[in-house]
Specification:
The protein is built from 5 helices and 12 strands. It is of the alpha+beta class. The protein has 3 domains: 155 residues, Immunoglobulin-like; 34 residues; 46 residues. It has a 6-stranded mixed β-sheet with strand order 8-7-2-1-11-12, with no helix packed on it. It has a 4-stranded antiparallel β-sheet with strand order 5-4-9-10, with no helix packed on it. It is rod-shaped, with a radius of gyration of 57 Å.
Length: 257
């Protein structure tokens, strides 16, 4: 008998926890009143969701809708004012805290099937985002009421993707690499050829020494040679002058006689 009871309990537990809270829109950008909502997901069998209760602010709030059936693998939205939303939802009366609180789904016996405690420290606080349950964890993303949740990429993942794109844009094909190496080689060969055609500072200095001092040296030699030559001819000129004077005197004396 005890074994049969245990087996019955084990069969009831999965069914009882089939409904899960999967998304919370608790703090919208602007006024929250009448626009807050909570998403639930049924991963079990079809059920009458109007017989369940939405537990918030320590109270069980009734659920109502024109169609109360929630099928397997379907989402349901619980809203304070369904007429303010552009998607179907179950009507209830509640006001979610912007600081955080505990939310639960209770069955008709007021038993908790799923409970979630959220906090503004988790994010989605007045920025147009919502808290979403993805792969067993809560994260922040753009609202996806009635659809599969998808969180925003983390900052570290974005940082890792950016360098990867830059690296791909900087990749060089083998052909481009060969052309670049060939171009560098031609530049290295061409530069020394131009350098050979140019006169070095030493060559310019040598030409200046050869051209400029030569006229000065030639001029000084000419002056020296002229002065030396004049000095050597002076005695001859003096003798010639004396001879001429004597001849003149001789002629004068002869005439007087």
């Amino acid at each position: 008998m005890k074994i049969m009871t245990l087996l019955f309990i084990l069969c009831i537990i999965p069914f009882a926890s089939a409904v899960q809270i999967t998304e919370i829109m608790y703090d919208l950008d602007g006024s929250d009143e009448g626009y807050e909502w909570v998403e639930v997901y049924n991963n079990g069998e079809d059920l009458d969701f109007c017989s369940y209760k939405f537990y918030e602010a320590d109270k069980n709030h009734r659920l109502s809708s024109e169609t109360c059936q929630l099928g397997s693998d379907e989402y349901a939205i619980i809203a304070d004012k369904p007429e303010n939303l552009d998607f179907d939802s179950f009507d209830s009366v509640f006001s979610l805290s912007n600081m955080g609180e505990e939310l639960c789904i209770h069955n008709s016996n007021k038993e908790s099937l799923d409970c979630v405690t959220y906090s503004s420290s988790q994010g989605a606080s007045g920025d147009g985002k919502s808290l979403q349950f993805v792969d067993g964890e809560w994260c922040v993303g753009n609202p996806t009421p009635g659809e599969e949740n998808q969180c925003d990429l983390a900052e570290d993942e974005l940082i890792q993707e950016e360098p990867r794109e830059e690296k791909q844009s900087e990749e060089i094909t083998p052909k481009e690499q060969d052309e670049e190496i060939k171009s560098e080689s031609e530049e290295q060969v061409f530069e020394p050829t131009n350098n050979l055609e140019k006169e070095t500072p030493t060559q310019q200095k040598t030409q200046e020494v050869k051209v400029i001092p030569e006229p000065v040296q030639i001029t000084s030699n000419i002056i020296y040679q002229s002065e030396a030559q004049s000095a050597s001819n002076l005695p001859v000129l003096m003798l010639l002058a004396v001879s001429i004077i004597l001849n003149v005197l001789l002629i004068i004396s002869t005439i007087r006689k």
